[in-house]
Amino acid sequence: GAAYSFAAIEAKWPAVWDELGVFTPKDDGSRERRYVLDMFPYPSGDLHMGHAEAFAMGDVVARYWRLKGYDVLHPIGWDSFGLPAENAAIKRNTHPAEWTYRNIETQAASFKRYALSLDWSRRLHTSDPEYYRWTQWLFLRFYERGLAYRKNHPVNWCPKDQTVLANEQVVNGACERCGTPVTKKSLNQWYFKITDYADRLLEDMAELEGHWPERVLAMQRNWIGRSEGAHVRFAIEATDARPEREVTVFTTRPDTLYGATFFVVAADAELAGEIVAPEQAQALADYQDRVKALSEIERQNTDREKTGVFLGRYAVNPLSGEKLPVWAADYVLADYGTGAIMAVPAHDQRDLDFAKAFGLPVRAVLDTGEEDPAATGVATSGEGTIVNSGPLDGLSKAEGIAKAIEVVEAAGTGEGTVNYRLRDWLLSRQRFWGAPIPIIHCPACGEVPVPDDQLPVRLPDNLRGEQLAPKGTSPLASAEDWVNVTCPACGGAALRDTDTMDTFVDSSWYYLRYLSPDYAEGPFDPEAARRWMPVAQYVGGVEHAILHLLYSRFFTKVMKDMGLLDADEPFAALMNQGQVLNGGKAMSKSLGNGVDLGEQLNTFGVDAVRLTMVFASPPEDDVDWADVSPSGSAKFLARAWRLGQDVTSAPGSDPATGDRALRAVTHRTIADATELLDAHKFNVVVAKAMELVNATRKAIDSGPGGADPAVREAVETVAIMLSLFAPYTAEDLWAALGHEPSVSNASWPQHDPSLLVEDTVTAVVQVQGKVRDRLEVAVDISEEDLRELALASPNVQRVLDGRGIRTVVVRAPKLVNVVPA
Ligand code: ANZ
Ligand code: ZN
């Protein structure tokens, strides 16, 4: 027969799929809807091995659900704003759009070749004015709700990229993108008030439990960082030079109030300069200079020796009346809690290290039975009984916390509170290639929103090359005819805001735009959202465990509050695919271990690469390309494809009349594969398909033969299973079986439970302990019958070679041992 050629079948099918529109959802309510989404790509060059893995996994889910009878939505688009396009444009003296849209075309062609079951009609790019018009519209709705605001604040600044960074974009003190140590700079910036949603972001995670990877939920929980505790107000005693001043601390351990022996404010908080005694002002200024010179990396190092400076003032403990020296130190963070703490060295290690460094007293107030922290240098934090603490004495830690809150509340010097680590989302960027912030600054009216009917605020298209280079202010400021506008409120001369939005704003709502990509009345049609949301399966890398997912969850909740959405959560289930490594290491230019996806596809074919990705490991595990065998996958696919050449029964022939043993294998495979797919063990499904191919080949060559309807049933099952991982081969096999395209229109087979009952068993026949034959026998065979069958075996007769028999041991139904005379 014909030979298997991946090139020939890759050329044949895409046009057919396009024409049939098999991957466009019906959206008519005839089937239950399911939305499958892969995190959309950033257009940096062509697709790479990582895309190949992630998208192969998402496609298994989409195709499986389609076969199961769901109406599946599986769209694609591009996250096409961002720095790399701008840097490329500066280097090549072009506009970022050129690089961006050229790369998008390259990736789109590769995606099509890769044969993902995508609905291309919904394609979007976040840098299209038709898209960012709605990003701006959403910004304005957030602004109206008080959820977008501007403030002057020290922000993370990347000196290399010359732009601010969100906390989330600072990794170990360095710019996530370029690795340059991040510094602080005070700037007027736009923020989204995500902190208003901290509680809901936390609470609604209960819905995601069991459907999202546990470690992602843990990272989100940790990022939101909810701490229960108290605000306690301390009076900083008046001096001749300074008036009394009240300073609030945040503590999770109000039970230790009597153990506070000193007081610390963040060295870089304005408060330090406001309260410092005049004679200590110079010492503080010197210390602040030292702190500023440190990189974030150094500051975050917890092992670093504690440093600080005494401010010449005393804080009064509101419960004990004790006077505590006030210090400024850099281990207290300006933007956590209130930026000031009561230091309890006996029970907090950081405070103890500081007390040791500066000879400050240590007083234990919780007797935990452990050794004295003053002596050991180890703070005690276990359970115990409160001591040395007036009204709290004798209580447990938990009782003490409750009681201390009661006491400070009664005294009017504090209250129980909840503190979050989560900060508001800094969204403005001093860069060009992003959605302009739709605000006009008017000398008379202040901030004026751009009216909805003037959206989008388009990026100017006359800036290019060097004009886009970062100068610390947005390049948009230099586009004078763009910046200068009339105020929509008073008609006077005004200026556009020249910042653009963080690209995480674009990606916080793209999953909704897919639902009605041409909708003109809003960002999406609320009716379409009602039909499709939430996303039933989201697929993407764990590098988005915090930022993108948290922001999208926040956007969803705000849109729900706006009445646009019913869903509380955007992504009902999440799958994180592993990385593709080479030689056990992530692929990188410096290691020179990169593998080019295009070359792999040219050498082995799309199906073999996809199958290899899926077969290598469960989706969430890494794949080491040095350990896998795409050529082995290609051989398997050829073997599967050849089955189609040998089936001679007609489509529709009744499998019930076919070979029962093969049917048992087929139906066992179907039953197992269904369970494995539901559990996302795609790699084992591939192994099952391989076993079925082997059993079928055996049935054709040395069993009932290619005309048996059970063989057709087995090969049809192979085609349907393969369509999840190897769509070209599967489609061709399906056609060889005499079916109309497409195999994607087939139904996922149902197993027949009666065929799974194992009513035969293999009996081993030994002569003098050596295996001489294996017999398929009924499970309930009698000892007599089994004995007779064994002795009749030609193999046994040959070995006996005419000798008589001493005894025959029979253990029905599995074993017979013949002992010759
Ligand atoms: C007194 C105390 C006694 C504390 C004790 C802890 C143990 P989490 O759980 O992370 O919320 N703290 C408060 N604000 C701070 C800041 N801006 N910079 C550094 N540390 C700060 O931690 C809350 C605890 O961290 C607070 O409770 C405070 O120290 C410290 F035995 O207050 B504690
Ligand atoms: Zn005005």
TrEMBL record:
Domain Leucyl-tRNA synthetase editing: 221-407
CDD domains xref list: Anticodon_Ia_Leu_BEm (cd07958), LeuRS_core (cd00812)
Record domain Methionyl/Leucyl tRNA synthetase: where: 40-180
Reactions catalysed according to its record: tRNA(Leu) + L-leucine + ATP = L-leucyl-tRNA(Leu) + AMP + diphosphate
Claim: Aminoacyl-tRNA synthetase is one of the keywords in the record: yes
Residue ranges of every copy of the Aminoacyl-tRNA synthetase class Ia domain listed in the record: 422-625
Enzyme Commission code(s) on record: 6.1.1.4
GO cellular component, one term: cytosol
UniProt motif ('KMSKS' region) ranges: 586-590
Location of this chain's protein in the cell: Cytoplasm
Domain of life: Bacteria
Gene Ontology biological process terms in this record: leucyl-tRNA aminoacylation
Positions bound to ATP: 589
Database matches in InterPro entries: aa-tRNA-synth_I_CS, aa-tRNA-synth_Ia, Leu-tRNA-ligase, Leu_tRNA-synth_edit, M/V/L/I-tRNA-synth_anticd-bd, Methionyl/Leucyl_tRNA_Synth, Rossmann-like_a/b/a_fold, tRNAsynth_Ia_anticodon-bd
Keywords: Aminoacyl-tRNA synthetase, ATP-binding, Cytoplasm, Ligase, Nucleotide-binding, Protein biosynthesis
Domain Methionyl/Valyl/Leucyl/Isoleucyl-tRNA synthetase anticodon-binding intervals: 659-780
Pfam families registered for this protein in UniProt: Anticodon_1, tRNA-synt_1, tRNA-synt_1_2, tRNA-synt_1g
GO molecular function: aminoacyl-tRNA deacylase activity; ATP binding; leucine-tRNA ligase activity
Residue positions of motif 'HIGH' region: 41-51
Family: Belongs to the class-I aminoacyl-tRNA synthetase family.
Name of the molecule in the record: Leucine--tRNA ligase
Source species of the chain: Sinomonas atrocyanea
Lineage: Bacteria, Bacillati, Actinomycetota, Actinomycetes, Micrococcales
Gene name of the encoded protein: leuS
